Amino acid sequence: MSRVHPTLRRTDDEEPATTADRPSIWTVWNKSSMGFHGTDGFSIYDSKGRLAFRVDNYSRKHKCFAGQLLLMDANGKALMALRPQILSMHDRWSGFKGEGGLDPKCSRTHVFSMKRRSILQGCDKAEVYMDSPNDPSPLPRFKTEGCFRRRDCKILDSNGEEVAQISHKKVNRSVTLGDDVFSLIIQPYTDAELIMAFLVIMDRIC
């Protein structure tokens, strides 16, 4: 566990690297925080090693059978429901905000759609369309570049500016952790919750 958490040289009195005016640094573990047999998911830690986001009971089944996923905070509060579109050659997913967790009867607000940029199954690149009345543009608001499978990936905004970067997690100069643990850097003034949702969907698309 100590190797999974970020190893930043900070004192307890210093501000963590999650303030609005500097990049925030996260460690993503492709493992459920529940930690018992039969569970899968994501555990996402902040720069001080505190659990910040999680996805539990993450199914590796085909999306036709797996159903939607739930992004939660460290206490298990539902933040966003991630739902696959079954009949989609581009592996389209939608993100919804609202109370009620995975209950299909609860009211939710559609926030974004994310899909693979090509129908080719080997394609790692994806694009995101936001559902906003203030942004009627048909162009994607975000897109990915690089290879998520290899943990060498960036998320760019519509201007081509980098908003997040995914890379291998290094313990020190000579030791790099496996693909199930990786680093995530989010640029200032970027919604971390949205980036976490994108990351979970990217893992399913890839």
UniProtKB/TrEMBL annotation:
Renumbered residue ranges of the record's region Disordered: 1-20
Gene3D superfamilies with a match to the protein in the record: LURP1-related
Pfam families: LOR
UniProt xrefs under InterPro entries: LOR (IPR007612), LOR_sf (IPR038595), Tubby-like_C (IPR025659)
Entry superkingdom: Eukaryota
Protein family according to the UniProt entry: Belongs to the LOR family.
PANTHER family: EXPRESSED PROTEIN, PTHR31087
This protein's name: Tubby C-terminal domain-containing protein
Organism: Ensete ventricosum (Abyssinian banana)
